C-alpha cells in the first residue's frame, strides 16, 4: 500500500486498525459495496455498517471516500457514545504526509470550539414548551370555533387557516426534535419527534430523517440532496439546465417553469407528493411504529371533524389545510436554497459547501416565527443540532469567520427571498432553452 502502509488491504479490513493510508487509497473505496471514510484522520471501513446506520444508508454513503469529520460532529450531539460503534470499523489512519481533505477545516473547527465554549448548544426548555403550547392552543381554537359558531363558509375558512398555521408551526417543531436540538439525550428527541411529526402532523419520523439528513450532508448537490431531485419537472442551477438542453431533454417546457411552478410546486408538494411518498415509505419499509403514530393523527382528526362535516367534508377540509400548509412550507424552505449554487459534487469543505448552498433572511420577530427560525439557514446548516433560539447569537461569529476567509455570507429580505425563487427558476429555464436551441 502507498503512504507507508503497514499491512495488506485484506488485513486492514479485519478491524485491526493498524493501516496507514493515502487519500488516493481512501478515495478508491467510494462505491456501493466498498466504502471507507475518514473522521479525525482515522480511516473507517463502513461497508457493512451503512445498512445499520440509524440515520440511513444514503447519508453516510455520501461521504464514502471523503473526510466526514465535520459532518460527523454536526449530526451527533453525543459523539463519545457514537464512537463506540465506530471503534470496530477502524482500519487505520491517514499518513502523516497527507493533508486534511477539507482546506478550511481548521477555521471551522475553531468556530465550533468557540460556539461550544459560549454554551450555544444549550437549550432553553421554556422556549420549546411555549412553542408546543401555542400549537396545541391553535388546534383547540380551530375545533372550538366550529363547535361554538357552526360550519358556515367563513367559520370553515378561518378554521382551515388556523389548522394550517398549527400544522406549519408543528412542522418547525418536529424539525427541532428531528435534529436532536432540544434534549441532551437523543432518545428523548426521537420520542418527541415521533409524537410531533406523527401524532400532530400524520407523517413519519424515519421518512423525514432519512430524507432531510441527506439534504444537510450534501445540500444542493445533484444525486445526493433529495431536495433538488425534481423528477425532471424543473431544472435548477446553472449546470443542469445546460446539460438537459445539450442532450435535448424536454420532459417539460422548462423555459416556462417559473410560471408553472405556481401550479405544481407550492400547491402540490405536501398534499400530493409528500403524502404519497410518506405512505409508500412506511409500508414498503414495514415501519409499523411510524404508521401507528401517523394513523393516530388521522383518528384524532376525523373523530373531531366528521361529526360536523361528514367523512367527505372532513377529507375536503384536511386537503385544503394541506394545500395552505404546502404553500407556506415551499416558500420558506426554497427561498434559502433554490437561488443558491446547485451543482454536482465538488468535494468542498464543510464551511464553503454550506455557505454556497444557503442564504439567510433578515431577522424580525415575524420572520423568526413564520420560518421557524429557518431565516437563519446558514447557522442552521453549519450547526444543525444547535437550538434555534441561539441562531441570532451565533450569527455574528459566523459572519466574522466568513469575512476572514473570504466566504460569501448572503442575507436578504423576506420578499427578496420569495422573488429570487421565481427569478432563479426563470434564469435556469432560459439557460435550458439556449442550450436546447444550440445557441
TrEMBL record:
One Gene Ontology CC term in the entry: membrane
Keyword terms: Fatty acid biosynthesis, Fatty acid metabolism, Lipid biosynthesis, Lipid metabolism, Membrane, Oxidoreductase, Transmembrane, Transmembrane helix
Domain Cytochrome b5 heme-binding: 18-95
Localization: Membrane
Pathway info: Lipid metabolism; polyunsaturated fatty acid biosynthesis
One of the record's GO molecular function terms: oxidoreductase activity, acting on paired donors, with oxidation of a pair of donors resulting in the reduction of molecular oxygen to two molecules of water
Chief location bin: membrane
The organism's place on the tree of life at top rank: Eukaryota
Bilayer-crossing regions: 152-173, 260-278, 298-321
Record-linked InterPro entries: Cyt_B5-like_heme/steroid-bd, Cyt_B5-like_heme/steroid_sf, FA_desaturase_dom, Fatty_acid_desaturase
Membrane topology: Multi-pass membrane protein
SMART domains linked: Cyt-b5
GO annotation (BP), single: unsaturated fatty acid biosynthetic process
Family: Belongs to the fatty acid desaturase type 1 family.
Protein name, UniProt field: Delta-6 desaturase 2
Organism: Muraenesox cinereus (Daggertooth pike conger)
Amino acid at each position: 500500500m502507498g503512504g507507508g502502509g503497514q499491512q495488506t488491504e485484506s488485513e486492514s479490513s479485519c478491524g485491526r486498525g493498524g493501516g496507514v493510508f493515502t487519500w488516493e487509497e481512501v478515495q478508491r473505496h467510494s462505491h456501493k459495496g466498498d466504502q471507507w471514510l475518514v473522521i479525525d484522520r482515522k480511516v473507517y471501513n463502513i461497508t457493512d455498517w451503512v445498512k445499520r446506520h440509524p440515520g440511513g444508508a444514503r447519508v453516510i454513503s455520501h461521504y464514502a471516500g471523503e473526510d466526514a469529520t465535520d459532518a460527523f460532529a454536526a449530526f451527533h450531539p453525543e459523539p463519545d457514545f457514537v464512537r463506540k460503534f465506530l471503534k470496530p470499523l477502524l482500519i487505520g489512519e491517514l499518513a502523516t504526509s497527507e493533508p486534511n481533505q477539507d482546506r478550511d477545516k481548521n477555521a471551522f473547527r475553531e468556530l465550533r470550539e468557540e460556539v461550544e465554549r459560549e454554551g450555544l448548544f444549550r437549550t432553553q426548555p421554556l422556549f420549546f414548551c411555549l412553542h408546543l403550547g401555542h400549537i396545541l392552543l391553535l388546534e383547540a381554537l380551530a375545533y372550538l370555533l366550529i363547535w361554538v359558531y357552526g360550519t358556515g363558509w367563513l367559520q370553515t375558512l378561518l378554521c382551515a387557516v388556523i389548522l394550517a398555521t398549527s400544522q406549519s408551526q408543528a412542522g418547525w417543531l418536529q424539525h427541532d426534535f428531528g435534529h436532536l436540538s432540544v434534549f441532551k439525550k437523543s432518545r428523548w428527541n426521537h420520542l418527541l419527534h415521533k409524537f410531533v411529526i406523527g401524532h400532530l402532523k400524520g407523517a413519519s419520523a424515519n421518512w423525514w430523517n432519512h430524507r432531510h439528513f441527506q439534504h444537510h450532508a450534501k445540500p444542493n448537490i445533484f444525486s445526493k440532496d433529495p431536495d433538488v431531485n425534481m423528477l425532471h419537472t424543473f431544472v435548477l442551477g446553472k449546470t443542469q439546465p445546460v446539460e438537459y438542453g445539450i442532450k435535448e431533454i424536454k420532459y417539460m417546457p422548462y423555459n416556462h417553469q417559473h410560471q408553472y411552478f405556481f401550479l405544481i410546486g407550492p400547491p402540490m408538494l405536501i398534499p400530493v407528493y409528500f403524502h404519497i411518498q410518506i405512505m409508500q415509505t412506511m409500508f414498503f419499509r414495514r415501519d409499523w411504529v411510524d404508521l401507528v403514530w401517523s394513523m393516530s393523527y388521522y383518528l384524532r382528526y376525523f373523530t373531531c371533524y366528521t361529526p360536523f362535516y361528514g367523512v367527505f367534508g372532513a377529507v375536503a377540509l384536511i386537503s385544503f389545510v394541506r394545500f395552505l400548509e404546502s404553500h407556506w412550507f415551499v416558500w420558506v424552505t426554497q427561498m434559502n436554497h433554490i437561488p443558491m449554487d446547485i451543482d454536482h459534487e465538488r468535494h468542498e469543505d464543510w464551511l464553503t459547501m454550506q455557505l454556497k448552498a444557503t442564504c439567510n433572511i433578515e431577522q424580525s420577530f415575524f420572520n423568526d416565527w413564520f420560518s421557524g427560525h429557518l431565516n437563519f439557514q446558514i447557522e442552521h446548516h453549519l450547526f444543525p443540532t444547535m437550538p434555534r433560539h441561539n441562531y441570532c447569537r451565533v450569527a455574528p461569529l459566523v459572519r466574522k469567520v466568513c469575512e476572514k476567509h473570504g466566504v460569501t455570507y448572503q442575507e436578504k429580505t423576506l420578499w427578496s427571498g420569495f422573488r429570487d425563487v421565481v427569478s432563479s427558476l426563470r434564469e435556469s429555464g432560459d439557460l435550458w432553452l439556449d442550450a436546447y436551441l444550440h445557441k
